[in-house]
Amino acid sequence: MNTRLLPLYATLLICIIAYAACVLQFPTMFSTRVAGNLLTDNAFLGIAAVGMTFVILSGGIDLSVGSVIAFTGVLLAVLITRYGVHPLAAFAIALLITTTFGASMGAIIHYLEVPAFIVTLAGMFLARGMCFVMTTDSIPIDHAFYTTLQNLFYRLPGGGRLTFIGCLMVLVFVVGIIVAHFSKFGSYIYAVGETAHRLN
Amino acid sequence: MKRLNTASLTKALPQLLSLLIILFLNYLAFPGFFEIRLQDGRLFGSLIDVLNRGAPVIILAIGMTAVIASRGVDLSVGAVMAVSGALAATMTVSGYPLPIVILTALGAGLVCGLWNGLLVAYFDLQPIVATLILMVAGRGVAQLITEGSIVTFNEPGLIYFGTGSFAGIPMPILIAALLLVAAIAVVRRTALGLLIESIGVNRSASSYAGLNSKMLLLVIYGFCGFCAALAGIIIAADIRGADANNAGLWLELDAILAVVIGGTSLFGGRFSILMSALGAIIIQAMNTGILLSGFPPEYNLILKALVIIVILLAQSFTSLGGWAFLKAEFRSKGTNGQ
């Protein structure tokens, strides 16, 4: 057994025990319905965790993800509902802005040698503040495209739904694994993290 | 304490300048900012208010400086504040005498801090993860103590810690100042400060040199918990109640920010408690200024973020060597052709 993976096995074991405890109490927990819903409901968390994994691998931390998630939500609502932008275009704009935002924090961390904890803390305030600046109302999104996305699912045996966003999370996991373990970029990230660890 | 020579003044320049600029902007936004008057035997004025409101973060920053200097971080101080405030409020309502209430609340903070220290020093957990546990669990504990409600009290003795004054100076300022002087005296008049810096720079080397670094870490985290409890009592006394959900919410971030603005590195080592207190005052001056300026409240967070970024950039700029660094950087880029 690979000792390097022991923490992973421990987490897996706890996950199985917790799920089993739930199933013992509520037998219907053990169904494709619940499994499908777990994937769907936690997709945003899982996708953010893939990004966070890379940041932590490089020896840093990103406190701003929660605020950036909120920022994206507000931005999409404003763009789609107030300005009538097509959701796909809005997604592209949101991804562009947030990626630039993250990259600028990375630039400050690297070139100005400010600790990641503090830069992303300021980023957290900034992103959350931008939400308030855009709007202080809650704006509903009801665009036909969103309904289409919601209706994109594969029906599993037992009535569970493998939804589009659930699959998206799995896809992001796969891409993350490939980038981290089978690409030059991934090895560089490990190397940067290892150096940061040794130096500090 | 170190002699105030020109070298240490130059190091403190970015912070002092930021504070002066922020105070001046506050004065522009609100012309009566520097007025201080004595009324009913207590000092009043915006400047006094900045210190008074900033006192809890100053107290947190004192404990946090020691933790960060040992290359750790304590995310649980906000939750510990809620626990001590909840204890103080519920015990007062149950009719316990004031000294016992205060000692129990402080003791609870100390125990919380020692728990963090135990996890960090003896179980070798990363400080950020070890203290995250109490950050989440602490609010639950506080809710158990208050049984989910906001406990209010009217006991003049406890309220005195939040809104009372001694010789014209509001109690929170007095407590923060006393703790500041005591902490600086202890770390700089004894070898303690040096030992903290030493485990912050290299813990295993310090252990090999014969330092009981585990015990020292335990003491450091315990002290941080004690500071958090003190801040929690002040906040509870100020609002005459304990709110398990909101007391000290996000204050751990303000405290860490104060320490970093004060110039203590998050990677441990050299630290200055006095500069951390200055950092806390800068943060509070900024908060008060934003409120006084009558700016739309939507912009508060953005302004705060921008000011923090500017202060950090100014700091990093001076620590990297100022203009000389930029020139050298451009020259090397030019020759390397990158």
Fold and architecture overview:
The complex is a heterodimer of chains A (200) and B (338). Chain A is 75% helix and 3% strand. With 200 residues, chain A is mainly α. Chain A folds into two domains: 1-30; 31-199, no CATH class. The longest helix of chain A is centred in the middle third of the chain and has 25 residues, at 87-111. The mean pLDDT of chain A is 90. In chain B, 73% of the residues lie in helices and 5% in strands. Chain B contains 15 helices and six strands. Chain B has helices at residues 6-11, 13-29, 46-69, 77-93, 98-122, 127-146, 156-163, 171-189, 192-201, 203-208, 213-239, 251-261, 273-292, 300-320, 322-336, and strands at 36-39, 42-45, 151-152, 165-166, 169-170, 241-242. In chain B, the strands form three sheets. In chain B, strands 1-2 form a two-stranded antiparallel ribbon. A two-stranded antiparallel sheet of chain B has the order 3-6. A two-stranded antiparallel sheet of chain B has the order 4-5. In chain B, strand 1 (36-39) and strand 2 (42-45) form a beta hairpin. In chain B, helix 4 runs antiparallel to helix 5 (98-122), helix 4 (77-93) packs across helix 11 (213-239) and helix 12 packs across helix 13 (273-292). Classes of the chains: A mainly alpha (200), B mainly alpha (338). The A-B interface holds A 61, 108, 112-115, 117-119, 121-123, 125-126, 128-130, 132-133, 136, 200 and B 73, 128, 253, 256-257, 260, 265-267, 297-306, 308-309, 312-313, 315-317, 319-320.
